[in-house]
Amino acid sequence: MEKVVALTKRRGFIYPSSEIYGGLSGFYDFGPYGVALKRAIRDLWWRHMVELRGDVVGLESTQIMPSEVWAASGHLTNFVDPLRQCLGECKKRWRADHVKGDKCPECGGPLDEARMFNLMFKTHVGPVEDSSSEVYLRPETAQGMFVDFKNVLNSSRVRVPFGIAQQGKAFRNEITPGNFVFRVREFELMEMEFFVKPDSDDEWFDYWRKERMRWYTDVLGIKPDRLRMYDHPKVGLSHYSKQTTDIEYEFPFGWGELEGVADRTDFDLRVHQEKSKVDLSYLDPETNERYLPWVIEPAVSVERIFITLLLDAYDEDVVNNEPRVVLHLHPNVAPVQVAVVPLSKKPELTGPAQEVMKSLRGEFRVEYDQTGGNIGRRYRRQDEIGTPFCVTIDFETLNDEAVTIRQRDSTLQERVPIAEVHAQLALRVSEHG
After folding, report:
1. Are 266 and 294 in contact (CB under 8 A)?
2. What is the DSSP string of 9-68?
3. In the chain, N or C: fewer CB atoms in 10 Å?
4. Distance between CA 355 and CA 375 in Å, rounded?
């Protein structure tokens, strides 16, 4: 983990938020390569969850919602963690379930009795800050999809079974954020609520468990032996859940949740119907039956996928008797898919290199690297940010109108005519899925 954290800062993936002012615990900024990786994750999720399916539509709801929403959903009473505070020198706060005994892990001082702490960020709408203007930043995107369920039904041609998908920021005032971006206070969720007939939830729950696992291995290229499914015991289920499975990854700190798939029953639609007094039932056009659909929810944060991909891809090896750090990122998610590298800064090489770059930009994520220095060092830099392919323009290019495609993982190099570069790279990327 320490090596990956250092790499993310060095290569512009992640920076501590507001670092010049000392930073803010649990908040991070994403640099140029981090943004590119996050966008690739989001785009792939949306493509496979929405665009390639005929039974899921999209939604974008607000980040601020009235307190009535969270009272109905149970978040005001159930979205809590046990908190203990050090009464000694450091005064730090700890999650009660993360400490043993009555001594502070930091300074050894005594800890007070555990009390429940709500994780939601509260704010106010309007000029007067009183209880009537209280609202909350959402800790999840799910409730927006439930309260808009009737709107989606009435304005589109969806029929049960169908899903509503959403991506967007969420906020949780974690007592102890940690493990880098694994647990943070501001993050981006990708959730889908799949509405099904009440007696078909077991079938769809099993389907989405398997489908989400397949996505990680086949689309993102995560090592299967570092993934597993963990079925929550009945006694540990959330208040809304009939059954929940976590897709877990073997992190350096142990097995941890990557994504959760939950059978939420009809809990959310039912409580919002009761609280709002608005009929949220569904009239089945085939059977003329009216019911509240049950819901299967796959939910994951971009940041969890982000750190999982970096940890899964990180490697150290030796090439030409020199050590290198390499990220074996799948071409689907690599921040840079192709680097165009002229051997020197001389115009006779940079001209053709610019033309090659223009021919690739738009279909691939391309970076142009004409910085001076040893070509091997430039390859090492591209290896370290996970670039699968480098296209090198050298002085032979002026004679044979060909370039060298260098492959990151094997370091093999192949001479390819300029006219075939685009097609060859498209083939190589598609071979990776």
Report:
1. yes
2. HHTTSEEETTGGGT--TT-EEE-HHHHHHHHHHHHHHHIIIIIT-SSEEE----SEEEHH
3. C
4. 20
Nearest CA among 84, 83, 79 for reference residue 119: 79
CATH topology of domain 336-431: Rossmann fold (3.40.50)
CA end-to-end span of the chain: 28
Pairing of strands 14-16, 338-342: unpaired
**Helix 347-360 / helix 421-431 crossing angle, nearest 10 deg:** 50
Range(s) within the chain of domains with CATH label 3.40.50.800: 336-431
**For the segment 167-207, what is each residue's pLDDT rounded down to a tens digit?**
999 999 888 787 999 999 999 999 999 999 999 999 999 99
For 282-335, the pLDDT digits (tens) are: 999 999 999 999 999 999 999 999 999 999 999 999 988 989 999 999 999 999
Contact predicate 141/171, CB 8 Å: no
CA distance 265 to 296: 8
